[in-house]
Amino acid sequence: MELEKELNSQQLKAVLNSENSLLIFAGAGSGKTRVLTYKIAYLIKERGIDPFGILAITFTNKAASEMKKRVIDLVGRVGEYMWVSTFHSFCARLLRREISRFGYNEKFIIYDSDESLKLISRCITDTGYDLKMVSPKSVQETISTSKNKLIDHESFIKRAFDPFEKIVARIFPLYQDELHKANALDFDDLLFLTVRLLKDNPDVKEKYQNQFQYILVDEFQDTNLVQNELILLLYNGSNKIFVVGDDDQSIYSWRGAEISNIINFDKNFSNTIVIKLEQNYRSTKFILDAANELIKNNYSRSKKKLWTQSHAGELISKFRAQNEQEEAKFVAKKIRDIIAGKNKKSFKDFAIFYRTNAQSRAIEEVFIRENIPYRIFGGLKFYDRKEIKDMLAYLKLMSNPKDIISLTRVVNVPARGIGNTTISHIEKFSQNNGITFCEAFYDIEKINTVSPSTRQKIRDFISILDNLRDYLDNHTIEETIEELWEKTSYIKELAIENTIESLNRIDNLKEFLTVIKEFEESHNSIEENAKLSLHDFLQEISLVSEVDNYDEDADTVTLMTLHNAKGLEFPIVFIVGLEEGIFPHVRSITGGYDDVEEERRLCYVGITRAKEKVFLTSSILHYIYGDQRERLISRFIGEIPDELFIDENKATSLLYSSEETGNYTVNKKSVFQFSKNHPERYSKQESRSVDMFSTKSKDSKKSDNSGFKKEKDFLNFKVGDLVEHKLWGNGEILRAKKSVDDLELDVVFKSVGLKKILASVAPIKKIQ
DNA sequence: AAACGGGAAGAGTTT
DNA sequence: CTTCCCGTTT
After folding, report:
1. Which nucleotides of B are covered by protein (CB under 7 A)?
2. For residues A62 and A55, is the Cβ–Cβ distance under 8 A?
3. A452 CB-to-strand B distance under 7 Å
């Protein structure tokens, strides 16, 4: 290990310093993974730290296993004893050992958001509310936020003030109770209970404080209150803390991430120093310039500037399409062109990022038609598919018979004559007798409101489960699944259905089997603790994210949301849908200023993923709820100086002139032409508040003699007019809205993009 | 009990 | 345009 050769001076400092609590400000692409890896290797090899005493928290499981692998490459197999995982996996692992203190069984299962939502819905109904009046989603959100602030249901009740909170105050305790009865935890409980465990049990706390001599946390800017609390509990002042973060890449405030965790770092830990990594090794200069220029527009951020020694590289590109299809086609065409070029690029060098999962569809459709191989991350995840969830429900039920959500999910899947009537009879019986639904279900003989024939069906179902449980004792999970298919006729029913959809489901199930097989194999070989139990398998499945399954060897284009893109890098990056209302998202625009700043950081994250080339695309028309609406170009495009852009609308010679778009040709005037053909589209705009902005001063009211607007003729501006602005040059009016005695205009300028201005004060004139 | 159809609501990002 | 829920029919 030749640290001096491998690291720059700041990186080296971060690796070698073992005296202080360290806060590393690591800009995008500044080699923080490298620093983390070398740091750990250095600790083990040079400082003689026991790997078992090292805790490293990463943002994804994939990052965790990668880091582990790299460390093992450097230090050998002793590295396997490190604790490297996400917060959630760490907590699950800890609770596995200690949860009995809370009256849970160590075989607890983890409910994903869907399952938790179902349980919440049950609780709402049980409390006597109507699901239409009390939205399960809002309740779930409120409970989740509460747990993430370390407020349990008892404290919540005390501080519930508004009517909605009062309602949640009734549901929250019930929900916790139901979770407990089902021996289940939701995602937030994992963190919440771990914190409580350490708080309430000094002996446990001390045990882990002593074990973890070094605590390293990656992506610290995205930690929330509970997570910070957890770290603080593990810290006793004599062990060491090392965190890495970048405030410009903080994109999870909606999930409770607290930037104050960074700000208060020096108060929370002793003897702190800050090290900044500002040299970027990933991107070419133009890309970095664009990212820097963009992020400069954020008010709240610490001062820093990424720099690079890299060559200028290629300018970034922008393209404004007519609609989503054309936008997707542009992406496809560019990919094809670049691959055909001499830079020897293949599909896996490309990534396409978007703001919302739904946006992947347009791209997908075009890629299928044009035969471009791709993989989508997020959206409808593999494990979210009905058939897979059914399998997991069966498995969960085998592992934990108290799992009411899984039981109700599969009790009649495939249909076996145990329908809603029966379920509500059991429900009623359990309520009347003060027992849980599951208890009533397994004791079906006592419920004589259920007909004998139905009771027989339930007995059959229960014995299927029992038999599968026995079967698992001397078979692998894979074999047990096959047995499950056999005994429930699950596959058979799908085959009989014989639709494209059902056959597709069979394929997915076979893939599921492969996943399980690989899982079992890999775990048996790597980990010594021999036989992987079903329970371990389920825990891991609950906590994997889609990105964890990313396989960099497959030669396909990658499609994912910008949030998922964090921590990854690609030679060529497309960000699509750069439109006001999409990115930045409407909900951020109508929210506070902070929200738009977070969107901007998200865009920054996207751009800085690219090593060689960035494309920012948008389209004029966009479908929402099956309704086509026009969209203004995103402000983020306007915030990046024009000198850094290649305008593909000009540069590309008419890619898409023909079929769908009629006479439409792509050139620099595309925006203008469109609105002239469809002026009526702009008239149905509702009133929107005008984000005031500051050209109104000086020379506005007094007309100077340059011809820029005077007196009352400003009322003559209308949608579609081409105008010249004193500072920004030519633009086109996209919207005009009368206010009391003025005209609010949305104008797209060639130089700066979209601006909102008041006709009476802005220095603009009409161009003939 | 299951299948079908009409109507309403809905998609912001995730462990 | 989708998905989900509910009421109706078989």
Report:
1. 1-3, 9-15
2. no
3. no
Instruction: Verify whether residue A631 is a known catalytic residue.
Output: no
Give the number of C-alpha atoms closer than 13 A to the C-alpha of residue A721, restricted to the C-beta side.
20
Query: Contact A759/A709 with Cβ under 8 angstroms?
Result: yes
C-alpha A616/C-alpha A586 separation (Å) is 19
- Read off the DSSP letter of residue A738: E
- The closest nt to A187, taking CA to C1', is B15
- A626 in contact with nucleic chain B (CB within 7 A): yes
State the pLDDT confidence band at A575, using cuts at 50, 70 and 90: very high
Both tokens of A175, joined, read: 């929900």
Please write the tens of the pLDDT for every residue from A216-264.
999 999 999 999 999 999 999 999 999 999 999 999 998 889 999 999 9
Look at residue A614 in the predicted model and tell me its pLDDT: 97
Q: Which among A343, A382, A290, A292 has a CA at the least distance from the CA of A575?
A: A290
Nucleotides, chain C, CB distance < 7 Å? 1-2, 6
Does A661 or A99 have the greater pLDDT score?
A99
pLDDT in tens, A671-721: 222 222 222 222 222 222 222 222 223 233 333 334 443 334 556 777 777
CB neighbours of residue A449 within 10 Å: 12
3-state SS class at A729: strand
Name A residues 500-539 whose Cβ lies under 7 Å from strand B: none
Alpha-carbon span A176 to A636, nearest angstrom: 43
Smallest CA–C1' separation from A361, nucleotide: C1
Greater confidence (A521 vs A306) lies with: A306
Q: Write out the H or E segment, with its range, that includes residue A590.
A: helix A586-590
Tokens 């930037």 -> residue: A259
What pLDDT, on the 0 to 100 scale, is given for residue A667?
A: 31
Q: Determine contact, residues A593/A629, Cβ cutoff 8 Å.
A: no
SS3 of residue A55 by DSSP = strand
Q: Helix, strand, coil proportions of chain A in percent (round to 5)? A: 50, 15, 35
Task: Determine if strand B comes within 7 Å of the CB of A422.
Answer: yes
Residue A347 confidence (pLDDT) above 50: yes
**Structural tokens at position A114:** 């869907």
**Residue A633 DSSP code:** B
**Spatial distance between the Cα atoms of A193 and A226, rounded to a whole number of angstroms:** 10
pLDDT digits (tens, 9 = 90+) for A754-768: 666 777 667 777 776
Report which DSSP code applies to A686. P
Residue A28: which residues within 8 A CB-CB, separation 6 or more?
A246, A248, A249, A280, A282, A283, A291, A306, A604, A605, A608, A609
**Which residues 600-629 in chain A have a CB closer than 7 A to strand C?**
623, 625-626
Please give the pLDDT value at position A275: 96
For residue A586, which nucleotide's C1' is closest to its Cα? B12
The predicted structure's pLDDT at residue A593? 67
DSSP class of A221: G
Closest by CA to A620, choosing from A629, A609, A608, A611, is A629
Average pLDDT over residues A404-433: 89
User: For residue range A349-388, what is the model confidence (pLDDT) as tens digits?
Assistant: 999 999 999 999 999 889 988 999 999 887 777 788 888 8
Residue type, A450: V
| pLDDT above 70 for A78 | yes
> What is the DSSP pairing of strand A272-277 with strand A21-26?
parallel
Token representation of residue A263? 């700000």
Spatial distance between the Cα atoms of A547 and A351, rounded to a whole number of angstroms? 13
Look up residue A128 and give its amino acid.
Answer: G
Which of A20-34, A40-54, A226-240, A446-460 is predicted with the least confidence, judged by mean pLDDT? A446-460
pTM beyond 0.85: no
Scanning residues 238 through 257 of protein chain A, those with a beta carbon under 7 Å from any atom of strand B turn out to be 251, 254-255
Does nucleic acid strand C have an atom less than 7 angstroms from the CB of A299?
Answer: no
